Amino acid sequence: MAKRSLDSEASGAERRLRYERVYDYVLELIKRERLKPGDRLPSAPELAERTGVSMISVRRGLEELEREGRVSRHQGVGTFVGSGRIVADPSRGGELLASLSDGSARPKLRTELLGITVGTTSHNIARALVIDASQPVWEVRRLRRVGGSAAILERAVLPLSRVPALDESYLRAGKSLYTYLAEQYGLRDDYVEQAIEVDRPSPADRQVLELGRTDHVVRIRGVSFDADGSAFDCYEQTYRATEFIFYSAGGTNRQLLQPGKAGEWLVRPLTAVTPASAPRRRR
Prior knowledge:
Chorismate lyase; 27% helix; GntR family transcriptional regulator; 2 domains; 7-stranded antiparallel sheet; single chain; Arc Repressor Mutant, subunit A; alpha+beta
């Protein structure tokens, strides 16, 4: 039994060298063949045969490459050259696209409107927006795709007292919510307050973002304030954790936004209301 253990991948150092064999081979293959993002890579069994290691080492090597954004794996489809991680600057206000970079340019971002709801909100959001919990709010849910892949799930909560109506067709066309708020209501984020955490995805996150069983997400919850210091938007952005690098510089010390569990950040739907005809409650 002892001899069999020694003949197998016995030491941690040896196992590390074997999975690194896969790691280095894939990077050299991408460079030698001049492969581009989206190009298919050899299957796991092919990589095991070419590098002379076990499937366990192949999986470990691919996991490391995927964690760095160098490859992307899709169950039942295959492994492809990745586009690298996108740098996100959450401290930059305004449109989400303005906060993203792939190192040389802004990535192509496509927006899908998932839904618009009118409802009453939980205590955490009401406190962040400095409104009564019974006051109606909009909840706008959008999915952001980068290079065709689901990457960011976004929710924006807006008090009807500050945003009486929303143009659903405008948002469904993928246009900027912040541009709409600025043009229609003069609401511009003068500064933001944010909380960032790594979290396990909810079932809805997992489905919409097409996440695997072991994947994690990065959640950014924030509040946007206008030049008068009044909150007008409470938002949540959920990112695929392995595809982004988060960068932040500077900041302002605020105290309105409090950490809370996911279940504390809810909007309870009212009866069916169309975006253009929602009731407005005076403050």
